[in-house]
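REQUEST ID: PR-0412
SUBMITTED BY: lab tech R.K.
PRIORITY: routine
TASK: structure prediction, single protein chain
INPUT:
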Amino acid sequence: MNKALACRRVNSTIFTGDIRCVWLILGIITLAACSIAQARAIKIVSGTYDQNCGAPRGNATHDLAHQCDGRTTCRYIRRDP
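STATUS: complete
OUTPUT:
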């Protein structure tokens, strides 16, 4: 194998490795961004108010979810039924 052909193969291999590395890094960044975005969104599963006074479980779920679902922060103000 002549010297020029050997250099061309080495350069080609390095270039291919660089592209793979860039794709790997972009993939990791994308996954991290998706995870962070999903972790910050509020999803109300259940909300109960005055349970210690005999109120049924989940009596505030609908209103709480309506005010807070999908947000990153929520200042909930309880409304009278």
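NOTES: The chain has two helices and no strands.
REVIEWED BY: pending
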